[in-house]
Write a structure and sequence with these properties.
Distance between the termini: 45 Å
Number of helices: 22
Shape: globular
Length: 665
Amino acid sequence: MLRAVPLFRFSFYFLLGMVTDGCLEIPTLLRISMLLVLLGSYGMILCCRPGISEKTVLIKSLILSGIIFLSGACLNATRSSFRKKINDPPAGMHFMLLKERRNTTKRTTSFLASSYGWDGRSWQKEAKVFVYIESNFLVMEGSLVVTWVQPQRIKGTSVPGVFDFSRLANQQDIYHTIYLTKENGIVITRGSDTKSAGLLAVWRNEILELIRHHFLDPRDAGLAEALLIGYRKDMDAELTKAYLDTGVVHVIAISGMHLGLIFGLINWLVVRLLGKKGTRWAGLIFSLPILWGFAILTGCSASVMRSVIMFSFLIGANTIKRKNVGMNALFGSAFILMIHDPDIIVDIGFQLSYAAVLSIMLFNKPIESWIYTRNPLLTLSWKLIAMTLSAQVLTSALVILHFHRFPTLFLFTNLVAVPLSSLLLLLEICLLVVSQSETMSAITVHAIERVMNWMNGYIHAMANVPFGMIEDINISILTAFAGTLLLAVLIFTFKRPSQLLWRMTIFAIALFSMANLSFYCMNAKKKQTIIVNIKAAAVVIHQHGHRATIMVPTSWIQTKSNLVFLKSVCIENNIHKIRWKSIPAIPMLISSKEHFVLLHALPEPPAAELKKSVKKGEWVVIDGSMKMWKIKQLQKAAQGLHLRFHSLRDEGPISIACHLDSHNR
């Protein structure tokens, strides 16, 4: 099987090299030396006589695998954002060209911008920056803003359960952020919301305007935008949550399913117009440009790029009359995406997309063979059920690992949502075609709204089922691997039982049990103090095993968002029982038992008292209740006294191991 899928070996060894370099950080000299030695050895073997070369097939294979492995390691070291050495922009004047609006709240609007600085001779592009602008500071996409404020480095955290924004930003090659107001920013030119980078961006804006014109209900307009071009900024929050809770959020996120429908529609039209013989070159002339244009139009997410590259392989193979293996196209697309962006392997969308397609390729036929019927309708229904079940084999563990929840009714929701969403996509494409006719547009919009009401009503009904979601699940990577292995072995065992498969089943059960038990015991021994900053006040989580005491200031308000944040921290750290404790919001809270001194709302920085208050080995932790100049003074005083200092406002949460002189930040 592997001989028929040569790109699997390329992708596997390349990925292994990237992961190994990411974990071990192989020295540059060693990495390059080994690569040169292997390249020289491979070249010598190729130059040998044919008889000698044929006898060394195994050696050639091992050397080629090593070259691919080291190529992956070299690429990860040179292009991964997690290995880059980032320099802060120099102080002085900075120009911010606002390119794309990202998010809007009551207080701020965020933009992705390009920063330009003066190097003494000319203006140079410095980096991409996240710009947060006050709501009363009127700017838009395309505006040019000048400021003397220094962009700040986006700092990360490794505290489990705390969202690491820096990791997400670094994957987009963004390392700095800046906050602008009317006082510290001057608008040089105002852009326009219609200004964009190219023709496809213009079409995207025109499609959005068309949808908003025809759909008066914002909920329907938001869903139509998400289904057609993946624009989810106008999606209703309650509706999005319902799709998340029922496990069908993939139907409102542009994925391979959408591109498959578009490819099928184009292929159907070509067959009707040109016949089957015309599909060979029509795919290259019509289908491929349309699919790539749609991919760029929707934002080039990992799942969309996976799908469009796979279709490129399929169309190319069909054009040159070569036999194409779907598995080869899958791993070939993964190989190309990893070369383009090594950090894509940590993208959840990339992992889920490839896991789902690989799972369908491996397990769809075995599951489909469980039931046979002659009724065409039942056969079609069972095929849809088999595809849904097969996609879950490799994705279920990933969903639980990343989101700590699992929808129990995914099968019933997918059986209805997938066909209806496919119908909606086709109807919306029809709306684009007939948009110039008021009568046809009205009929199409009415049909779309009717189908939307059916789908949304069904999704809301399933979301309200009490047992529709299992929450607060925390598993290790080893447990996820063992559970996936167990599911895969069981499927093949049910299809064709054998002594080897039964032994593998017993092994998988034992591995799953041991992984789960070891993860539970490891967390039972965990003793740490986690300090997080929520709403300008510190919250202390003192964990001993599966129990924790959460200490909050008396002034802290238990809002829904605050409780959800603390819940995610507790789930990630495997905390099952919580005891709440209030602490007075006094100027200083000293806790030598937990190896830290927490400073809160100090009127004046007590630099002289730090030496008396803080013992050797303790941390000086400051929450967000103090102004920046006070924090800087305290940091300078702590450095002068050789004390360990941590600002929750600047550096994020901190975890301090109890009774140990170690920490994680």
